Amino acid sequence: MFYEPKDGHGLPHNPFNAIVTPRPIGWISTRSSDGHDNLAPYSFFNAIAYTPPQVMFSSTGHKPDQPDSKDSVANIRDTGVFAVNVVSYELRDAMNASSATLPASTDEFAHAGLEKADCRTIPCSYVAAAPAVLECKLYKIVELAGEANRMVIGEVTGVHLRDDCMKDGVFDVTTFQPLARLGYRDYSVVKDLFSLSRPDD
Question: Does 184 have pLDDT greater than 90?
């Protein structure tokens, strides 16, 4: 099968997200300029640089009370900061609950039954139970082709690692089993690892 996106795919569901998989989930926490905490998952997310450490996530579309974006982007645009919470398998239901379309003033931490903690380098809350958290200051918001498509790039200013996830000096993902987004309504979880040495090592 071959198709050009401009012509449509003719399938019951768009296969694009099922092709680019697995994708890590950026569970983005922000705080509005008037003090409302927000939490939402984004599967267009990744780390993009080592020095300084930088991450990105992309937001697509908008919501009724945010005509040109979603709450996360609007809050980051106003405050210049955000946090990325890593999603463990244990937190899957809370992550899903936080994806609901809710009014901008609604606290998704409370909606999902999550305990908050305070970031150290930025004025923002994070998920206390998350195995890792990246505190970020905004580097740039890039407008992408398409209506309300935006990529947010942030520089990491603080890193939280849960102590029980550290094994012999290594952040061991098998201790919490990170969630990954697949296509359609599908997810996966990382349980098994293998290593490969680069040819130049």
Answer: yes
CATH code of the domain covering residue 117? 2.30.110.10
Q: Judge whether 178 and 22 are in contact, CB under 8 Å.
A: no
User: Is residue 2 one of the residues assigned to a domain?
Assistant: no
Q: Which domain holds residue 34?
A: 21-189
pLDDT (mean) for 126-137? 98
Please return the burial class of 194, using the count of CB atoms within 10 Å of its CB with bins 0-12, 13-18 and 19+: exposed
pLDDT at residue number 67:
80
Alpha-carbon distance of 179 to 188, in angstroms, equals 6
Give the pTM.
Answer: 0.95
Residue 174 has pLDDT above 90, yes or no: yes
Cis peptide before 22 (omega within 30 of 0): yes
69 vs 21, 61, 64, 65, 111, CA distance in Å? 25, 6, 9, 9, 21
Q: Is 8 inside any structural domain?
A: no
What percent of the chain has a predicted confidence (pLDDT) above 90? Answer: 93
Q: Are 98 and 111 in contact (CB under 8 A)?
A: yes
Does residue 9 form part of some domain? no
- CA 66 and chain centroid, separation: 19
